[in-house]
Amino acid sequence: MNLGHFDFDAGKYAVYVWPAFALSAAVFVWMIVDSLASARRWRTEAERRQAQAKDPSK
Q1: Are 18 and 26 contacting, i.e. CB atoms less than 8 angstroms apart?
Q2: pTM for the structure as a whole
Q3: Rama region for 39: left / alpha / beta (φ>0; ψ in -120 to 50; rest)
Q4: CA–CA separation, 15 and 50 (whole Å)
Q5: How far, in Å, CA of 6 to CA of 1, rounded?
Q6: Contact, 20 vs 28, CB < 8 A?
Q7: How far from the centroid of its chain's Cα atoms is residue 8's Cα?
Q8: Tens digit of each residue's pLDDT (9 = 90 or more) over 12-50
């Protein structure tokens, strides 16, 4: 398997293909970052509620 010979020439459609790839990559990165941030917020909230359940005076 030789990975060194990719054909990156999109011809006359390059003006559409490469921005579409870039936009797709940006959306994937945004989705990953947003998911990680959301998971962090949920975890913090769960830990806060667990601590509050153990010590209701807070």
Answers
A1: no
A2: 0.69
A3: alpha
A4: 53
A5: 12
A6: no
A7: 25
A8: 999 999 999 999 999 999 999 999 999 999 999 999 999
